[in-house]
Design brief:
Elements lengths: L10 H51 L10 E3 L14 E7 L6 E12 L2 E12 L4
Antiparallel strand pairs: 1-2, 2-3, 3-4
Length: 131
């Protein structure tokens, strides 16, 4: 008596193979979405940091005697300020000693990305020579 030889794959083998392939594709898709979100967040942080550094450079290159004139809010193109805030960058200027020789300049950027508030801060101590 002859036993029939098996040619090809059984339906069960094909289904198991397809299931493994589907799991692999779902995992790779999830990792690509995570990578895209990380890229967007990094791009936003870079944009905020460049804007903060540019604002600080504007403050330091203008030879104003009262650096405190720069306190306030500044916009950043490409970033959305969170609700309740007029612009992305806030500049605060505080005296570090009683006579105003040393100023602490704090530049804080807050922006909204996918319903999450992100923050980047730079603190700079400035010697106010104009007094």
């Amino acid at each position: 008596m002859r036993h029939p030889t098996q040619d090809g794959f059984s339906l069960l083998e094909v289904m198991v193979g397809m299931s493994i392939l589907a799991l692999g594709l779902m995992a790779s898709t999830a990792s690509m979405v995570t990578a895209i979100n990380a890229k967007d967040t990094t791009a936003d942080r870079d944009l905020a940091l460049v804007a903060i550094e540019g604002t600080l450079e504007d403050i330091l290159t203008n030879q104003f005697y009262n650096t405190g004139d720069f306190a306030g809010f500044y916009p950043v193109l490409g970033l959305t300020p969170p609700e309740g805030r007029s612009n992305v960058i806030e500049v605060k200027v505080e005296e570090q000693n009683g006579n105003g020789d040393i100023l602490r300049i704090t530049l804080e950027a807050q922006w909204l990305r996918r319903e999450t508030i992100n923050t980047q801060t730079l603190v700079y101590l400035h010697t106010n020579r104009g007094g």
